[in-house]
Design brief:
Blueprint: H1 2-18, E1 24-30, E2 38-43, E3 46-52, E4 57-63, E5 68-73, E6 79-84, E7 87-92, E8 97-99, H2 102-121, H3 128-145, H4 150-160, H5 165-172, H6 176-179, H7 182-196, E9 207-210, E10 216-218, E11 229-234, H8 239-255, E12 261-266, H9 272-281, E13 288-290, H10 299-302, E14 310-314, E15 320-323, H11 328-339
Amino acid sequence: MKKILFAAAAALALAACTKPNPNAYTIKGTVADADGETVYLLAGTDTLGVDVVKDGTYKFEGVVESPKNATTFISNKLYDELILEPGVISQNIDNHDVSGTPLNDEMTELSNKIISIIKELDDENANQDSLMSIYKAIFRETAEKHAGNPLGLKFFEELAYEMTKAQLDSVIALYPLYAADPTLQQICKTKAKEEKTAVGKPYIEVVGVDAKNGKESKLSDYLGKGKPVIVDFWASWCGPCRSEINNYLSKYAKEYKNKVNFLGIAVSENSIEDTQKAMSELPISWPVIYTGGRSEDSPVNTYGISGIPHIMLLAPDGTILARNIRGTQIKEAIDKALAKK
């Protein structure tokens, strides 16, 4: 009898030891043409796992106490984001497809919607305002639904760029995950600079070279001429920048000829040749100041610009009348400025 009881107790103990951990995760990944390459599982600067791609597959296993954002990284061209949460996660790096757990399934579904909208925005006949409204609604609704978790953080980061520093600080204070996020910390720093160049504040000088002739050129060269100035911070590689030039800026430059000056400021570029090539491809009839790459003294840092295109309207004396205006907002800002003259 004692032997039977001992055996039963041992069986129960063994079952307890082998009971699956409810916080365990498994990542089953696939990637093409990368056999022998090392793949890393990263969470911020922490390495959570290392594997080698074999027969187009890799695998990570571990335990996560609460969901967190992570990245699988092979090279600068082969990486993908995912949300580390309990369960079996399937990942295809080539297609940027992650599925198998609730947050990852929803993230992939939302990403596909966003990609579809971005493709539609590239169509010159698209209703830009309507599409942007849908785009922003996806981010807003997801950030609210998942406030405080990793998916909510991803979408809140996008919204954060359009918030004031006070608004941003108030939300970050609610969630420890947000307070520790490096991206939000950087956005807070950018917001502080943005406030120094807010509407009603004076412009800050921008110095570069004329993209056409390579001679030194400054923002102040185009002020003080009795006309408001539209200033477009853009880059040759930026799809939305090119769309804004094609669909709005070029049209308004013709409509307000002799009433408003237009100026482009090329930022975050790889070379002046890239800027010049884009100028030959786009309907740009205004001067462009080339300011180089992504250095600390770049105008995007000086003005606290977190994304391009970033379009401003300056008064003739350099006072900032409007900033971060897009589409028909440009016309509205111009009409308002001209009505005051």
